Amino acid sequence: MRKIIVFASVLFISVSSMQAQKKKDLLDEITKLRNELKTTKGELNDSRNKEKATLTQVATMEAQVKDLKDTNASLLSNMSNFTQLSNQKAKNLETSLKSLQEKDRQLKLINDAIGKNDSLKLATLTVFKNALGGEGNIGVQNGMVLIVLSNATLFGNDDSHKVDDKGKGVLGKIANALKAKPGLKIIVEGNSNAISFKDKSISDNWDLSAKQAAAIVRALQIDHKVDPKRMEVLAKSEYGSESIETATRIIIDPKFDEFYSLVKENMKNGPKE
């Protein structure tokens, strides 16, 4: 009986001891799990914080990427505009260059026309100088070939409007030169400064200048068969260019209209650069 009691006691103690050990182990396990849970929660919080930081960083990077895209698009647009502007400037420069080249060409044509016109005047001057010899003064003035003959040479007296024999000889030389140059025209300009008039039909120097110039044209037409369409009459009285030394001026073929026509024709038909 005693053995049974002892055995029971030992068994109870053993069971109690085992239960205590298990309880202790269980408590340790619970503590361990709690610690692990706490650690896990901490790690989870760290992960969440990192995730938030990462998301913020991603959002920042996305914003930067968007800004870069916008900047890139703006640069591309500006580059396109700059290219268009450069192309337009290049076209404008090309147009300006062509315009300058055209102006240079026109100036060359005008200079060529002036040179040709001057050559024609020089040739005309030579023809009349050779024809007149030492009679009268001949030269170029204001782009015109000009013959100046004293009224005494043509009419004998300043107040006469009848061409005398010496004057007829001079006019014959002029007529021969005009016939050699059938394209030339002349303007006969009377300049008189008579102090008194023997011919009472003469009103004044205007009247005398006109009659003297008309007498020269009439002589060229009737005596030398010069086409009257090639001649004009102009009276200057004592207010003309030769008012002190009375004289008649013969202006030979100014041809300003022909000169401008020559320039216009050369510009129209000139070679394109």
Brief rundown of the structure:
This protein is α+β, with helices and mostly antiparallel strands and 273 residues long.
State the helicity in percent bands.
55-70%
What overall geometry do the principal axes of the alpha carbons give?
rod-shaped
The rounded distance between the terminal residues' Cα atoms is 145 Å
The number of helical segments is: 5
Q: Could you say which structural class the secondary elements and strand pairing correspond to?
A: alpha+beta
Radius of gyration, in angstroms, nearest whole number: 61 Å
What's the CATH H-level superfamily name of the domain at 144-253? OmpA-like domain
> Low-confidence segments, ≥5 residues, pLDDT <50?
none
Q: Mean pLDDT, rounded to whole units? A: 79
> What do we call the CATH topology of the domain at 144-253?
60s Ribosomal Protein L30, Chain: A
**CATH architecture identity of the domain at 144-253:** 2-Layer Sandwich
Largest sheet: 5 strands, mixed
Strand content: 5-15%
List the helices and strands and how they pair.
Elements: H1 2-132, E1 137-141, E2 144-150, H2 151-155, H3 165-180, E3 186-191, H4 205-224, E4 231-235, E5 247-252, H5 256-269
Parallel strand pairs: 3-4
Antiparallel strand pairs: 1-2, 2-5, 3-5
Helix pairs in contact: 1-3, 1-5, 3-4
